[in-house]
Amino acid sequence: MSNTMFPINHALNGGDDCPTECGDWLSDVGAEIHANKLRHGWKVTTSEDWEDQHEIPAVLALIHSEVSEALEAFRKNDRANFEEELADIGIRLIGLSHGMGIDLKTAIFEKVRRNRVREYRHGGKRV
Ligand SMILES: [Mg+2]
Hints:
This protein has helices at residues 7-12, 25-39, 55-75, 79-100, 104-116. Helix 2 (25-39) packs across helix 4 and helix 3 (55-75) runs antiparallel to helix 4. The chain is mainly alpha-helical. The termini are far apart. The radius of gyration is 17 Å and the shape is globular. The protein has a single domain, classed as Helix Hairpins, CATH 1.10.287. Bound molecules: magnesium ion.
């Protein structure tokens, strides 16, 4: 089968970008997250926030709070809430990336490619 049948593999194997069949759903979701935040009166992250000493750390803390909520859902054996909190993590991450103009899809593809060639259990850590 050709790589165009599996656009993610195409991109992970060094293709310049996801073929058109792949679409850019991540960018579309980012735009929706951005628009929804504005509709509800929330601050949206922008590239200019990089120069602010507090804005990006605050957004990262909010992502962390969603991770903690996922941990609590796991501790309570609440799978439905766990899934919701994972979605919250993704929404905050995608919203941050979108607002800052970061191409998260490409960044993830590049990191997955780098991870593929790392040594077995690199770093000597337990987990
Ligand atoms: Mg949450």
